[in-house]
Design brief:
single chain, about 280 residues, alpha+beta, 5-stranded mixed β-sheet, 5-stranded antiparallel β-sheet, 10 strands, about 30% helix, elongated
Amino acid sequence: MTSLLHRLRSGLRAALQVGLRRAAALVAVLGLAVAGLAAAAPAQASSAGRYLSSDSYQELASAIKTTTDKERLADLQALEQAVASSSDRAQVSNKSSHSVGVFARYKKLPATQPASFYVLGPGHKTDDDFELVGVYVPADVSLGWGSGGVKAGSSPRVARILEGQQLKISDPVLEVSQPEVTAPAATAAATPAAPAAAPAKPGLSFGAPAAKAPTITPAPAPTAAATKAPEAKAAEAVSYELSLPVFAVTAKANGIPELPVLTQSQLDLEPETAPVD
């Protein structure tokens, strides 16, 4: 009986050792397989941004291939680098002193759903749970970025934003002109003294002339131009300074409903409605 138990223990011990060796070999094989798959994966997959496969990026890449204008090509390449390095949904950060109109869509809504119009107040950034589609450009507003820009127009427009694009809007930096220094006027030369009066001839008497009464000229009546009321001061031109070029500025864009008609002054009076971070 003791011999039988001894043989059973030995058999179980041997079977356990064989099982452990096989398990170790299987783990080693799986490790080699995983390492081989990682080595075979393209290098771009580990470093590419999450929006390199988006439709808007493909459209951008196509525009880069067909653009011949050097300035436009530089703008598109700057956009390409920005989108390629982005890891978040498109957002806009309003660093300006004005309210900005934006078009955005909630992340769980389909791309076929039109974007909604929101007002983003100064100092705020759109929520990354919403995909930014465009920035509203009032007719009286111009855009500037780097060495490029878009002048104010006669009707409102929309600046299209690409998927993954992170945009900042700020006030333009105004150049302060130096005051002109005027040289002091030359001092007039001293007036020579009047020559002495000639002596009177004998038999002639020269008395002081009689004083003349001063002539009083009545003040002229005010003209029509002088009585005209001052004209109202024209509204100051507004410009958005952008951290990146825009892909396109158009009157219409896919996924964006009909544009509201608002001047920048009217937009500044609107309450903030945009979801913010």
